[in-house]
Every structure is written in C-alpha cells, then in structure tokens.
Amino acid sequence: MMPLKILCERLKNLNRLMRLKEMLVKEDELSAELTSSRVTSLEEIIENFSEYPPLHDEDVLTKWNELKDRLIVFSLMELEDSHFLCMRSNSELLPQGTLVMRLRSPTQQCGV
C-alpha cells in the first residue's frame, strides 16, 4: 500500500493534467470558431465582390480575377485548417482506450 502523501501528490498531478487538457480543448474549440468566422467573412467578401462587376478595363479585370482566385484559395485553406482543428479536438475528447481500439486491427481486438 502506498503512503498517503504519494497518493495525494499523484492525485494533484492528475488534476493538473486534466485541467491542462480541458484548457487545450477549449483553446482548440475557440480556434475552430475563429477560423469558421474568418471563412464566413471571406465568403461574404467574395459574394459582395461578385455583386459588382469589374470595369471593362483589361488590367482591372485581371486584378479582379486574381483577387477572387486568391480569396477562394484562402477560403479553402481556412476550411482545411478548421477541419484539422476539429479533428484534433475530437480525438483528444475520446477516451484513451477508444483510440487504441481504433488503431488495432480487428484480429488484434479479438485477441487472436
């Protein structure tokens, strides 16, 4: 049997780790919300730009198309980042055993 002092220290360390995990999950959730907000803003910008046709000047049209393409690429990058942050947050919320079970092949799960 372990001394009470060691058990108390382990419990304190476990509590600290759990609080740290909660803080990291909250940070990831906030980052995902911010990324989603940025994507929404970019989509609104693209829609607003699309409402106003460019001037018929060739240089302006080229710049217009370049800006539109850059905004689309940036929007796709933000969506991808948001997806990865969401995946990271979800994987950290799974119990440790669940993650291990997913990584094992079906034969390993059955003990064969």
Number of helices: 4
Biggest beta sheet summary: none
Order of helices and strands: HHHH
Strand percentage: under 5%
Secondary structure: number of strands: 0
Helix content: over 70%
Mean pLDDT value: 72
- The rough form would be described as rod-shaped
Alpha-beta classification: mainly alpha
Number of domains: 1
Low-confidence stretches: 97-112
Give a written overview of the molecule.
The chain has four helices and no strands. The protein starts with a helix and ends with a helix. The chain is rod-shaped, with a radius of gyration of 24 Å. The chain has one domain (4-109). Helix 1 (4-51) runs antiparallel to helix 2. The protein has 112 residues and is mainly alpha-helical.
